[in-house]
Amino acid sequence: MALIITIPGLVRLALVRDPDELLRVNDAGTVVRPLSGRGGLFNRSVAEKLAVFRAADGDIWPAFRDRHDPLRAAHQTSLESALSNIGPLLERIAPEITELGNYVRGGRTPRSMGVVVQQAVGRLFLPDYVASEESYAAARTLQAWLSAWPLRAAWLRRSGALKAALDHIEVASQGDMACAHATALAMHNIVKSIELMRELALHGDNLAKIEPKDAMLRTLRAPARVVREARDGDFVGLVRLRSRTLILLAVETARQQRASDPGLAFFAGAWNQCPAHGLVPALLGKVWEAARTRVIAGS
User: Fold this and answer.
1) Which residues contact 243 (CB under 8 A, 6 or more apart)?
2) CA distance 292 to 286
3) Is the pLDDT of residue 68 over 90?
4) Cα dihedral: 192, 193, 197, 198 (round 10)
5) Number of alpha carbons in the 13 Å side-chain half-sphere of residue 46
6) What is the pTM of this model?
7) In the sheet where 246-249 sits, what is the strand order?
8) Residues 22, 13: Cα–Cα separation, whole Å
9) Can you give the three-state secondary structure of the chain, one letter per residue?
10) Residue 10 contacts residue 207 (beta carbons within 8 Å)
11) Mean pLDDT score of the chain, rounded to an integer?
12) How far is CA 282 from CA 88, 102, 182, 288, 299, in A?
């Protein structure tokens, strides 16, 4: 059952962790992506944080558009088609996969693993995408912005660090806002997965014994939370949502309850299905395969 927290003037919140309940809430017609900021100070703070993710012309990033937005649907369909060409895309980033495989195996890399992941993700959208320590630092700043407490958030904004990070990501992404979202926000889950793969690989003889698909399932990570809002008051199953309730969908917690189903991490089959729902698991499997190639060859 969802956890409901209501403190008048401060917060109107629902935390959803059960897999079935999470999918029902996400799919409910009264539940929307755009945040009004109404419902309390906390609700307004979260809405203000997400509002910064806009292109230079003021257009919101595609991943934050509402389900009824025709541009969102068209963009999602187009991107899904492009990212479903998995074999050629993985071949495009073969050098990065080899580098990540070496890292998982315990080797040293000439640049940080996060930079390699960011470049791999960026090149799925733009073949000439180049990541750097600066672009990865910009991505980390934006991730920090989302989780920052008020004082740090105020410093990030007033110091110019937030705007500089947004500008850096947009320039690196050549104005492609889907690429910007992937290389600034979504890529951090892949970074977590690669770190977990390294831990798994360096434990006993796991690298030789565990097959790529199993390694992927063990290390795949979903976003900790995604945010929605109840536009109107209604019941969704047994959950009563008041109007303007901020909804936190605990995707990773739900995924852990269905670890054999990677689709839950990407809302596979839902209106907001991640276009990379097939590509990311395949990428992780390839990294594990690259890591274990020498081990098996030498056994």
Assistant:
1) 230, 231, 232, 233
2) 10
3) no
4) -30
5) 24
6) 0.94
7) 3-7, 11-16, 246-249, 226-230, 31-32
8) 14
9) CCEEEEECCCEEEEEECCHHHHHHHHHCCCEECCCCCCCCHHHHHHHHHHCCCECCCCCECHHHCCCCCHHHHHHHHHHHHHHCCHHHHHHHCHHHHHHHHHHHCCCCCCCCHHHHHHHHHHHHHCCCCCCCHHHHHHHHHHHHHHHCCHHHHHHHHHCCHHHHHHHHHHHHCCCCHHHHHHHHHHHHHHHHHHHHHHHHHCCCCHHHHCCHHHHHHHHCCCCCCEEEEECCCEEECCEEECCCCEEEECHHHHHHCCCCCHHHHHCCCCCCCCCCCCHHHHHHHHHHHHHHHHHHHHC
10) no
11) 94
12) 12, 17, 16, 10, 25
Provide the phi-psi class of 37: left if phi over 0, else alpha when psi is between -120 and 50, else beta: left
Q: What is the pLDDT of residues 4-60, one digit of tens each?
A: 999 999 999 999 999 999 999 999 999 999 999 999 999 999 999 999 998 878 788
**Span 182-194, pLDDT tens digits:** 999 999 999 999 9
From the number of C-beta atoms within 10 Å of its C-beta (0-12, 13-18, 19+), residue 195 rates as middle
**Nearest-angstrom CA–CA distance, 80 and 238:** 33
Predicted confidence (pLDDT) at residue 228 exceeds the cutoff of 80: yes
Per the CB < 8 A criterion, the answer to whether 66 and 72 are in contact is yes
Q: How far is CA 66 from the centre of its chain?
A: 17
Are 28 and 21 in contact by the 8 Å Cβ rule? The answer is no
Instruction: Give per-residue pLDDT as tens, 237-285.
Output: 888 999 999 999 999 999 999 989 999 999 999 999 999 999 999 999 9
Q: What are the residue ranges spanned by the domains of the chain?
A: 70-226+266-299
- What is the amino acid identity at position 183? T
Dihedral sign of CA atoms 278, 220, 165, 15 in order: positive
Strand partners, 236: 239
